[in-house]
Amino acid sequence: MKKISIIAICSLCAVFFLFLNCDNNKVDEPDDTLPDLILVVDDSSEAFELALFMDRTLLPSQKTYDFQLHHIKYLRQTWSDSLPFLGSNRFLTPWVIDHVAVKFDSVTADSIRSGRYRGFEMLPDSMEVPDDLGWTQLYYDEKYNPVALSEIISGLPGVVYAEPDRRMFTAIIVRPYPVLPGLINENAAYIIAEHQLSPTEHYFRYENGEPKYFGIVSSITDSLILAEVESVRSQFTERSRVSE
Q1: Burial of 196 (0-12, 13-18, 19+ CB in 10 A)
Q2: Beta strand pairing status for 4-5 and 95-104?
Q3: Which of 34, 44, 152, 197 holds its CA 20 to 30 A away from the CA of 222?
């Protein structure tokens, strides 16, 4: 387990349960048995973040990781010659992955400032004691889903709230999230923008194991396909949402 730099930690039971779950969900390197895929490191990293987003759990399952790795890569290999922008656009999570924002009550904050905080003694044996503390944010090296992490941290004694840090964009960014993943009848589906400064989006959905291209979203007239596009958008919004 990589070191994490944190300013708060879960109770013993919550952490223990959490990391038992994580051990069962560790993601391996790309599966060499996937057919006809030329994989690079960026493919593995993107698939991990896609799976993290789709599962909404602290760490993604191997099944979801393999599914996303195969489908997004095979789509690109199939269509990138005719649609070159597919080679450069990568999935971007709606929140920053390396930290969550945390607010403590005054008593807990004082105990942290004075060095009297004993939460680190509750860490399971699989984790090392952090060697750095920040203020108002919990940082970690491991790629955890910040929505799932925030939900756990927000229920701890002394924590007023915990929430993911959403990405901020300038006004000129038209499509801040270049890849919107979804599922249509258990088939992978993606809305992919040409780039962040362009309003043009393209829709793809798997059919009989192959990635099918339905064209530029604004030019699609089939009401059933348009309904699929809206479903993918809704799924992205729902998975991005932070519990109240």
Answers
A1: middle
A2: unpaired
A3: 197
For residue 235, give every residue at least 6 positions away whose Cβ sits within 8 Å of its Cβ, in sequence order, or none: 181, 182, 183
Q: Parallel, antiparallel, or unpaired: how do β-strands 210-216 and 201-207 relate?
A: antiparallel
- What is the pTM assigned to this prediction? 0.73
Query: What is the token pair recorded at 178?
Result: 């270049």
Contacts of 11 (CB under 8 A, 6+ apart): 122, 156, 157
Cite the beta strand spans of 36-186 per DSSP E: 95-104, 137-140, 159-166, 179-184
67, 34 contact by CB (below 8 A): no
Angle at 169 between CA 165 and CA 174, to 5 degrees: 135
Please check whether residue 229 is in contact with residue 217, taking contact to mean a CB–CB distance below 8 angstroms: yes
Query: What is the distance between the alpha carbons of residues 19 and 5, in angstroms, rounded to a whole number?
Result: 16
State pLDDT tens for residues 19-66: 334 444 445 554 444 457 888 889 999 999 999 999 988 889 999 999
pLDDT over 60 at 143, yes or no:
yes
Are the C-beta atoms of 5 and 132 separated by less than 8 Å?
yes
3-state secondary structure of 39: coil
Tokens of 20: 């038992």
